[in-house]
Amino acid sequence: MASDCLATFPRRRNATVSTIDWTRLAPPEARRLRELGFDEGVEVQVLHRATLGGGPIACRIGRMTVALRRAVAASIHVAPIAG
Amino acid sequence: MTQAAPLVALVGNPNAGKSALFNALTGARQKVGNYPGVTVERHSGRIALEDGRPVELVDLPGAYSLDPSSPDERVTRDVVTGRSSFERVPDAMVVVVDAANLDNHLRFALQLIALGRPVVVALNMVDLAERDGLVLDPAVLARELGVPVVPTVAVRKRGLDDLRHQLTAALGAAPPPAPVQDQPDEPLSTLQRRARAIAKAAIVSETPARRWAHWLDAVALHPVVGPLLLVSLLFVMFQAVFTWATVPADMIDAGFKALEGWIASHAPDGFLRSLVTDGLIAGVGAVIVFLPQILILFLFILVLESSGYMVRAAFLMDRLMATVGLSGRAFIPLLSSFACAVPGIMATRTIEDEKDRLTTILIAPLMTCSARWPVYTLIIGAMIPNTPVLPFVRLQGLVMFGLLIIGIAGAYVAALVLRRTVTKGASSGFMMEMPKYQWPRIQDIAIGLWSRALIFLKRAGTIIAATTVVLWLLLSFPKPPEGSGISPVDYSIAGRIGRGIEVVVKPIGFNRDIALALLPAMAAREVAVSAIGTVYAIDNTDGAAGQEALSDRLRGRWSLPTALAFLMWFVFAPQCISTIAVTRRETNGWKWPLFMVGYLFAAAYIMAGITYWLAVAVGL
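Output (structure tokens, whole complex):
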């Protein structure tokens, strides 16, 4: 399954969260991620990547902009939305 | 005792505009206190209901849910569920939600409504939502939530009367506060789905989010332009602190000199006059002169914070902070620590990870706080020639900048070592909501600056005034026997204590004057300046005290290696009672403040020693 994850997904393209590897995340991280609205089926968009080489990413979820580290973003699998 | 005014809690997510609503409702009639044990600030104020009944309004820290992950979220959870031992059970809650971020904020609102206490929902920032192309129907929202919903624009004071009206009704109908209920155990994901469904129902029309914020972020978060912008902002900030402050600082200085002169010409010469002018006014004045600089620094920090930029700065800094095992979040308290470590350490309470937070607290005193400037300014001004080094760069400024950088480098190394030893643990994450950009509100900034100014003046009026007076007394008594030729300072109690300290600090090049200044400087670093001044004033009673005279005396009595060692000492030494006290409160015990004091003194001693020996070796 060559699904994309949020860490590598191209910027400014709409996507839906297909699955989240909750088990790969530390429990407080998983909870905070839920609290910020991350869930299967939610629409997201990668907006920015900080400094070249492993900095955090900023993505839009709902009407919020959220900063995540790439390790966390790597456990969020997404599928592109056409258009 | 049931006659106390009803308690209304203001609750909501971070970035819901809760504090702006609180400021709009209470204006300047607010009190800032602390929740014991956790140093979470407690903001409260009185407002009048429609029928004139007074109500106490308390602004609880922002939280994402009733499942706390930081000390301030715990306070919020404890208060609303009636578990807090410091706060009454609120008689009603105003739940603040951001109109533009409903699906997220409604989840917490649903949890709060489920607690069964009277609730009014403030649908805040409706203007921003509308500008954003989002039209909502409050009536639908009220029907779905089962509680009154009032659209508000806190910053424009819109909807406040309506909010008061609904609150009056809610409190009128309220039964006495229900006994403590257990929080409902609905899983987050179910709540989230319900919140999304309700938000969807309440949305009348929606167009994509505005462009300009995207454009701003495209610049601010750009991999190359973003960091350059951040560095420029910091440069302008520090530049402003030193240039804008000169005029008001000179005015304050002139004011104190005038006061001193007035007392000198109106009071009879003697012990008491000397205590008031040489001790109290000179000592406190030497510190209050720095009020403009501190306020300018806080002005920048408050503007950066309220505009929404600070979180972007944290985003940019995260990569760098990660190399020492911290996260971008630590950048915000560390930046505040350049003004003062006390609010900086208090700002660490937003850091969720305990080890991360502890490391940040332990390195915060290494940021060059404003209390060091009086010391640096005096010593550099007296001992370092102001020769041009490069175009626009002079030696004095370069040394000042160098001390700042040494502090940052020291903090970097300390964090690196601490995270691998005493605060070892899994690297913490960085997950943060980026607030919308907005124009900082002058009223909110003014309130913030005002409270900082009060804290500073209170400190100058109490700790610093008391230390100065005590030192003055210890330096004045006992008087040496008439005609003995012994210096009054050497013969005094303080002089004898100073000789004891001198034994310890002599190897790193410190003289008697420094030894005498170190002890009172434990209260606050800037006291070192007034302490040295007092020593010379008492030692040499015919000379006039004052900056010029003081720096002339320093030149005569200190060698350059001693001065450099003294500067290096102040980069590291934890000479500040307030910082130690706030660390004790924040870490709930003496273990960490003692550790902090120990490692910083050791670093100060070693670094000052190295500086002294190197300076002597190269023949300075």
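The interface with chain B takes residues 26, 28-29, 31-37, 39, 47-56, 58, 60, 62-69, 71-72 of chain A (CB under 8 Å).
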